[in-house]
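Follow-up to my earlier ticket, as requested here are the two runs.
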Amino acid sequence: MLISIIVPTFCEEHSIAMHYQSSIRSIESLRSMLSLELSYEYLIIDNCSTDKTVEVALILRSKDPAVKVLVNDQNYGPVASPFDAMMKAKGDVVLLIAADLQEPPELLEQFLPALLEGYDAAIGYKKASRENPAMWWLRGRYYWLMKCLGMTTIPERYSGFGLYSRRLVEAFRADLISEPSMRVLLPRNATSIQSFPYVHQQRHQGKSSYSVYGYSREAIKNIVRNSRNLPHLTGKLAGLMACIAIGSVPLMVMAKLLAWQSFAPGIATVLIIVLLFVSLILAFIAVILDRLDQILLRLDPPSRTVNQSAVYD
């Protein structure tokens, strides 16, 4: 059995070697525990690191031919880059894990037995975190919003970390979703998932390629492109605003008659017009969101190709 370990990197020169060593220890442990003939490929996909991450990765490759290094020609972000590497993986099972050691490579020793039992995916979800409490709270609200919008049914604190079967990877490849977020792809394609809790560690080395603004931008793009409930909810809100505007007409007339001196001239008319205008804007947004896939397809045909400036295979 071939295990593909997908490791996205950005400025991880101090952690990538330790991550590689931890991953290899887990492979060796699985070999002895399951008595399987396991081989692996350790695929590093780098998002234009500005430190010596690529140099360290090439040193690892010089010592172990199973290490492969893909260097992107630009920073494609935390969604497209790992997904592209997953599509290039050749393994019977594919592990997606960050290089910053916040996600424990040792969890592979629990993931693989689950897939051998017949599960499509074994995923890790954060039961606790040693990261910034504010970020922990914000991430939780984002996952909650995704559930409310009907985008996912899996554990809230799942970020893509997990082991996936070859059948599931091919299902991801065939899925024409606009934004290949694992939180959206997984429940759409997996028939059986086993979840494992872990403690999300604090980042000690390296730095993230994304700021709060960057993560917010990705979150909004993901919700707008993939939510099927958002157009419906926006349309409902537009209808509610229109009903409030129309229903307020007789109320305004009665209020005007009963308290003539309390109302400035034209205030009732302006309020009703504003409500109707807002409802029309919301209705227009609902139509746009409902037809977003068709609009994006014409303006920007979907492409999942991430270009590499260098490939060390």
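Run two:
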Amino acid sequence: MRKVGIIGGETHLGEITGLAGKRLQIVGATVRPDQQEWAASTFAAPVFASVEELLAAAQPDLVAVANENDLKAQAVLLALQAGGDVVVDKPLALTMDEQQTIERFLAEHPAQRLLMLLTLRGNSEYAGLRRVVQSGAVGAPAFVGVRMAVRLKRAERPPWFLDVNRSGGLFLDLLIHGLDQVEWITGQQIVAMTGVTGNLGAPEDANLRDHAAVFCELSGGGSALVEGQRMLPGTKGSDYRMALAGTGGTLDLVMGGAVTLTNAAGADRAIEDLPEARSVVADWLDGGGLVPQAASLRANRLAVLATLSAEKHERLSVSLEK
């Protein structure tokens, strides 16, 4: 059983805490001051005032990072420098400088491992759609459309989340999953991106971003559009979809619903034998390849570049080497 230290009390911690007592032993945590009482009761472990104190006193061999987005890269580097492996919620880093610093450290310390929580790779519907694409049932992928929409839930969000300077914006906090799915499902790489983002729901708030989209050119000659927004009404919590058109058919996915296939054998046929859902953390602990370290790093790099494209209002080329 691995000893895990927790940095932060933000979303997706359940990917870690769900394995506590089975695969992981929580030996300490550090969180925002307003979360300390909650952390002490939830983790049943000592709560430290800083990342440095946690690493020195608890000496975890695995560190789970789920703090504020603008503090993630620093926490990841401190954990790596202390000799531990790292599981980090997205995004890994907000800037290319932070990204490159983490990449260099991992290249120089190949025994250490990092996983970013690209949880959609473990989702049954997305895995099922990928399996159909890989079977050749729709031919060569020509276009992929990804939608990721959620409610803003403004009253429930901490202030940092609503500030693009701290959250990083929608590409890094949300659409990073869609960018990864485009490459994972098609088996192609994104070679160029043109992004846009903005704020239509509350224009008086200069630091809020509530929608974003990025047009992607693919290495196989096709294209993809990854779009998302935080403008869903209170009647719906989330709306994740994917549509893929290939040279021999189409696929449509609604998360929590159906995956349907149209090709020469028939139209709008539901895929019944979807794979079982998998924990990306459990798979990683077992040495599995569901989310390779290179995929974690590349997904974050793509999200940083999409953000830069939207900020600069220009098309950016993407290296195939990362």
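The only thing I checked on run two: The two ends are 32 Å apart (CA to CA). Let me know what else you need.
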